[in-house]
Specification:
heterodimer, A: 6 strands, B: 5-stranded mixed β-sheet, 13 helices, PqqD family protein (chain A), PqqD_sf (chain A)
């Protein structure tokens, strides 16, 4: 991981459940917002964010497990991370921030 | 990401997290009870709950209800049918969630002052992980007491009570069992819990708090042969004469929302509703003689 490939993590202020098909995430700081439904690639990325992980590692892992084209996987994962960050359920760790564990 | 249609398996644990967070946001003390708390504490097996049960500091019930209303969880009045035990919870529901939320401001069987009971339970609270999130909950001993009282109050819950007693007998330490006697004494629940205490070999202790809820009110449901008819007969007697026709109609033709609550479901087809209404009327007709006898016996007490 480098500053060009920051690690991503789930925010802590969420509750979530999963089954084989999908993950549902409740944003505890926004209780009036509907829970987020994650399925397909989004659910796979969420499950892999148990510990902070960079985009490159996520793409390599998913492309290997699903025998996917790395370029297509990268586009899907990047899109998910962008949307999930906007929704407030994941965040990139800031390497310059000493409070971040991977800094 | 899109708007989900939540299943019960998703909605119940997320609902616990939501309500406990809403309570914390408005500074209200609240504890997760029953459902996934019991499973997490080894007090019952895996079982799909149909609602979220939370015990709330009596002083905080209205602020929490207001917060839930603000979040779109409306009071649905599904328990607005007569009962022998006075109202002890409010049910809120949300059109996009599959489960309701029951806010208990006291729990039947804890006969000491509800505020004092809550303080006792709060002081010994623990954290249980629900939906990958820690929520404040009754500790394992209080959780067992809550579950036992719930099972003892129901007419068809003997198997659940036996299962709970077996788990306590086989997995608790002597110190935990003694703690159950202390908790019962501190919450005015020794007498209501006595069958459970006997079943798990716990010697009751003298009460340490005054009982403010009448024991007779607790004993009634377990003594009666017809628990669902008698409250309607009692309600009819307390209804002004000019409202009695409407009361009788409501008793005979219970609202759809009441049937949903009784059947622990969020939806009933027209055919299912028709069958449920017919079956209820048949049960009422068959139990009428016993119901009237129970009612007369109660009036003589």
């Amino acid at each position: 991981m480098s500053s060009a490939d920051p690690a991503w993590e789930r925010v802590h202020d969420v509750a979530w459940v999963e089954d084989d098909a999908r993950v549902v995430v409740l944003r505890l700081a926004r209780l009036d917002a509907e829970p987020l439904l994650l399925d397909g690639p989004a659910a796979e990325v969420w499950r892999r964010l148990e510990a902070p992980v960079g985009l490159d590692a996520l793409v390599a892992d998913l492309a290997h497990d699903f025998d996917g084209d790395p370029a297509v996987v990268r586009a899907d994962v990047a899109a998910f991370l962008r949307d999930a960050e906007a929704a407030g359920v994941v965040r990139p760790l800031d390497p310059a921030d000493p409070a971040d564990p991977v800094a | 990401m899109s708007a989900p249609a939540l299943t019960l398996a998703e909605g119940v644990p997320l609902g616990y997290a939501l309500v406990l967070r809403a309570a914390a946001d408005v500074g209200v003390r609240a504890l997760a009870i029953k459902g996934p708390v019991l499973t997490a504490q080894g007090l019952r097996g895996e079982h799909q709950s149909v609602d979220v049960d939370v015990l709330v500091d009596p002083a905080g019930v209205e602020p929490l209800r207001a917060e839930l209303e603000r979040l779109g969880w409306a009071h649905d009045g599904t328990y607005a049918t007569p009962g022998i035990v006075p109202t002890h919870s409010f049910t809120h529901s949300h059109p996009r969630w599959p489960c309701g939320v029951d806010l208990h401001h006291w729990f039947p069987g804890f006969l000491a002052d509800p505020a004092e009971v809550f303080d006792v339970l709060w002081d010994r609270r623990t954290t249980v992980e629900v939906a990958h999130h820690g929520v404040p909950a009754t500790d394992v001993v209080a959780g067992a007491a809550v579950a036992a009282l719930h099972y003892l109050r129901g007419v068809h819950r003997a198997a659940s009570l036996d299962d709970l007693a077996e788990r306590v007998r086989t997995s608790w330490t002597p110190s935990q069992r003694d703690d159950l006697a202390v908790l019962a004494a501190n919450t005015g629940s020794t007498e209501p819990l006595r069958p459970f205490l006997d079943a798990v070999g716990v010697v009751p202790r003298p009460p340490t708090r005054a009982v403010v809820k009448p024991l007779a009110q607790w004993e009634l449901p377990s003594e009666l042969g017809t628990t669902s008819l008698v409250p309607w007969l009692m309600g009819l007697r307390e209804t002004p004469w000019w409202r009695r026709p409407a009361f009788v109609w409501r008793a005979l033709w219970l609202r759809e929302s009441n049937f949903k609550a009784l059947h622990s479901t969020r939806s009933l087809s027209r055919a299912e509703l028709r069958r449920a209404r017919r079956a209820r009327l048949v049960r009422a007709a068959r139990g009428l003689r016993q119901g009237v006898a129970d009612y007369r016996r109660l009036r003589r007490r």
